[in-house]
Design a protein that fits this description.
The complex is a heterodimer. By secondary structure, chain A is mainly alpha-helical. Helices cover 82% and strands 0% of the residues of chain A. Chain A is built from 14 helices and no strands. Chain A has helices at 2-16, 21-50, 54-63, 65-98, 104-116, 119-130, 137-142, 151-162, 164-177, 180-187, 192-221, 224-230, 240-249, 253-292. A 6-stranded mixed sheet of chain B has the order 6-7-8-3-9-10, sandwiched between helices. A 5-stranded antiparallel sheet of chain B has the order 13-17-14-15-16. Chain B has a 4-stranded antiparallel sheet with strand order 2-1-4-5, with helices on one face. The mean pLDDT of chain B is 88. The chains are: A mainly alpha, B alpha+beta. Chain A binds chain B through residues 180-181, 183-191, 194, 198-199, 202-203, 288-289, 291-292, and chain B through 49, 51, 70-73, 76-78, 80, 82, 84-88, 97-98, 101-102, 132-133, 135-136, 149-150, 152-153.
């Protein structure tokens, strides 16, 4: 019985969704060749160029003090911005999903602003505010605080471009889940924090992790906004993406592509993590579904 | 009084959800807040729980003023309409939640908690499901787990928001009886919200009828049915036929045996079972014909058509036991005579 209904179901599905073979193969072929041409090939080129002068040159350029400084700075930026963005994202999502207030839709639009604005403008805005000729620049330099062409500026610019990642993931999720479970926790005597950590967090953890992962990838890879505020001071204000550019401009191709290979590896790691996350989430879903049947 | 609300008002923008409500509920009662949707019953329940703040008025639980207390310190058990079970926790952890979040010095040991949770799960007859997740339960099972979870913290009052609203008709019937028995055993003052008058009458010991943010009547189910305070309650609770004297029903009502001389209003409400049908004997004047009937189990619901003196046609509903109807041997289209045994008069 079962097999019969299954096959007839498949057959009917085939009928409604049947494109001619050549359409299918053309579409699949097109997608694969675009991915190969624009994604795989460049990645291979990065590796080929990085190892063009052999392993020693590769490792030497990666252990060069400037390269190490760039990696350290990139890590520092990520370590500072990711928690801040996460905190912002969680509180913004909380506010938007839980409360009704004037200007709520405006806030949602504003959260998206960094996505729609060119990162260069983001950097420029900070230069205009904190730069030597900016609004607050003179005050800061009078107090001997450097923001532009220094690490704080880089962090601020990175914060700007990574703002939406966590919030965007959480807002629809929290809106969908609603707040009945939280009300239930409160009615059972839980405090606000207990409710947050024991009820809210477990419900949104996959979305949150996903947002944090994407945010981290962007924080480490951001170029435009950081480029404007950094000043490209070798060993001091060069992040890894900037280090790649600077080396390239100085015809240090091995150094440049070696840096690029690290960034590429980072992207791969991010993708792997993301896949694992999705897989785990599916496993969890499947586990509960299966037990129902 | 176990639960008292004093002059509670609540507005949502221009909409008045509750209009100066005062209500006293004695210890141990099982009270139904009954009303059509939008009448403010859920809002009132949420205000008592502390999930919503009233614009005006005070809430007292066991004599303590709790108006400004947050929900977590009101010692209430709340059962949500859609259960709101914690989806990432097992049934056991759901029920244990309220015991585990207590401050350390009040918290019971894990063994005592486990014992208590299993006892509660046995009370709701679902201990065998203790390691399942809410997704794996049926609606009726979730409802009972939600109830066990609310009872775990030993609430001084139990509040239930449309407890049977999301269940199948057959499950609902069983759960109603079960809730009534459970309340009888535990004797914790309980309020439940419902829009289903049958449910309110069947389960509650006291019914509070709400409409447009006001209390229309409060009383035992029988009182409310037999002595509705006004036309709204009379229409809302059970079936009723409405006869308006301004529309020339007076003569007819008199021929049906209802004296309009001692009338206390202009509108008569007559319950279907207060109408007696007799087969029309030849020669008598009657304007009523039998149109159709439906079987309601032990009762027959009879649809009659009354044509008034000025050609108006109106439907009248009557009810009588099955065997009595069979004895009358009536067919569709037969002329019948009516006798009205009792009516409620309203202005």
């Amino acid at each position: 019985m079962n097999t019969v209904s299954a096959t007839s179901f498949l057959a009917s599905k085939k009928l409604t969704l049947s494109d001619p073979d050549w359409v299918r193969y053309a579409l699949i072929g097109l997608s694969l060749s675009i991915i190969g041409l624009f994604l795989i090939l460049p990645l291979l080129t990065v590796l080929i160029e990085a190892f063009a002068k052999g392993w020693t040159a590769y490792s030497a350029s990666l252990t060069h003090p400037d390269a190490l400084a760039a990696m350290r700075l990139t890590l520092l930026v990520a370590v500072v911005t990711v928690p801040l963005t996460t905190m912002f994202g969680v509180s913004a999502a909380w506010a938007i999903a839980r409360f009704d207030f004037r200007g709520k839709s405006l806030l949602i639009t504003l959260i998206d602003l960094p996505f729609s604005v060119s990162p260069v403008i983001a950097g420029l805005v900070y230069v205009l505010i904190f730069g030597a000729q900016g609004w607050l620049g003179p005050w800061f330099s009078a107090h001997d605080i450097k923001i532009i062409f220094a690490v704080p500026g880089i962090i601020l610019a990175t914060l700007f471009v990574t703002f939406p990642f966590v919030a965007r993931e959480l807002i629809p999720l929290m809106q969908e889940i609603g707040h009945e479970e939280e009300e239930a926790a409160l009615s059972l005597g839980a405090s606000g924090w207990q409710t947050f950590f024991k009820v809210t967090m477990p419900n949104v953890k996959w979305g949150l992790l996903n947002g944090v992962l994407l945010c981290n990838a962007r924080a480490m890879g951001e170029f435009g906004a950081v480029s404007v505020v950094s000043g490209h001071i070798r060993g001091l204000t060069n992040t890894l993406p900037l280090h790649v550019e600077v080396s390239y401009n100085e015809y240090d191709f091995v150094g440049s592509f070696a840096g690029a290979s690290v960034l590429a590896a980072l992207a791969v790691v991010t993708l792997v993590f993301k896949t694992v996350l999705e897989w785990k989430q599916n496993q969890e879903l499947k586990a509960t579904r299966q037990a129902v049947e | 009084m176990s639960i008292s609300v004093n002059h509670i008002s609540k507005h949502f923008g221009a909409f008045t959800a509750l209009d100066n409500i005062s209500l006293d509920i004695p210890e141990g009662e099982l009270v139904a807040l009954l009303g059509p949707s939008g009448c403010g019953k859920t809002t009132l329940l949420r205000i008592i729980a502390g999930l919503e703040q009233a614009d005006q008025g005070d809430v007292f639980l066991k004599g303590d003023k709790v108006t400004d207390k947050p929900v977590k310190s009101r010692q209430i058990g709340f059962v949500f309409q859609h259960y709101a079970l914690f989806r990432h926790m097992t049934v056991f952890d759901n029920v244990a939640f309220g015991l585990k979040v207590k401050p350390r010095r009040e918290r019971l040991s894990n063994e005592v908690i486990a014992k208590k949770v299993h006892a509660l799960l046995e009370l709701v007859q679902l201990d065998w499901l203790h390691d399942r997740y809410p997704d794996q339960l049926s609606g009726g099972q979730r409802q009972r787990i939600a109830l066990a979870r609310a009872l775990a913290v030993e609430p001084s009052v139990l509040l239930l928001d449309e407890p049977f609203g999301a269940l199948d008709a057959s499950v609902r019937k069983d759960l109603r009886q079960w809730l009534r028995n459970l309340h009888h055993d535990l004797n914790v003052t309980s309020i439940f919200v419902t829009h289903d008058q049958e449910e309110a009458m069947e389960v509650a010991s006291q019914v509070v009828v709400l409409n447009h943010g006001r209390i229309e009547q409060q009383g035992a189910p029988g009182d409310i049915y037999d002595h509705p305070a006004n036309a709204f309650v009379s229409r809302f609770i059970g079936q009723t036929n409405v006869f308006d004297l301004d529309e020339h029903d007076a003569d007819w009502l008199q021929t049906a045996g209802l004296s309009t001389a001692q009338q206390k209003g202009k509108i008569a409400h007559v319950r279907p079972h207060d109408i007696v049908i007799e087969k029309s004997t030849a020669g008598t004047d009657t304007f009523v014909t039998l149109k159709d009937w439906q079987h309601l189990g032990s009762l027959i619901r009879i649809e009659l058509v009354k044509s008034g003196a000025n050609g108006q046609v109106a439907s009248v509903y009557a009810e009588m036991p099955n065997d009595q109807f069979r004895r009358l041997q009536l067919n569709r289209g037969d002329k019948v005579e009516l006798r009205i045994r009792h009516a409620h008069w309203f202005h």
